[in-house]
């Protein structure tokens, strides 16, 4: 079994379980920001 067959098999199994594997499991309601310090310090 090659890599493509393994990945395809996993995706098909998830789809059969009702899971959409390419959808993010979290909500996008709140923006997090990038957490970069304004002073530029490390």
List the defining traits of the structure above:
single chain; 42 residues; 1 helix; mainly alpha
Describe the structure concisely for a colleague.
The protein is mostly helical. Helix content is 33%, strand content 0%.
Please give a structural write-up.
The chain is an all-alpha fold. The chain is 33% helix and 0% strand. The protein contains 1 helix and no strands. It has one helix at 3-16. It is elongated and about 55 Å long.
- By DSSP, the count of extended strands is 0
Mean pLDDT over all positions: 79
The poorly predicted ranges are none
Structure annotation, total helices: 1
User: What can be said about the biggest beta sheet?
Assistant: none
| Principal-axes shape call | elongated
Tell me the fraction of residues in β-strands, as a range: under 5%
Class based on secondary structure composition and strand pairing: mainly alpha
Q: Whole-number radius of gyration?
A: 19 Å
Helix content: 25-40%
* Span of the ends, CA to CA: 47 Å
Helix/strand order? H
What is the element layout, followed by pairings?
Elements: H1 3-16
């Amino acid at each position: 079994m090659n890599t493509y067959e393994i990945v395809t098999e996993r995706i098909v199994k998830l789809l059969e379980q009702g899971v959409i594997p390419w959808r993010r499991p979290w909500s996008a309601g709140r923006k997090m920001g990038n957490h970069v310090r304004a002073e530029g310090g490390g």
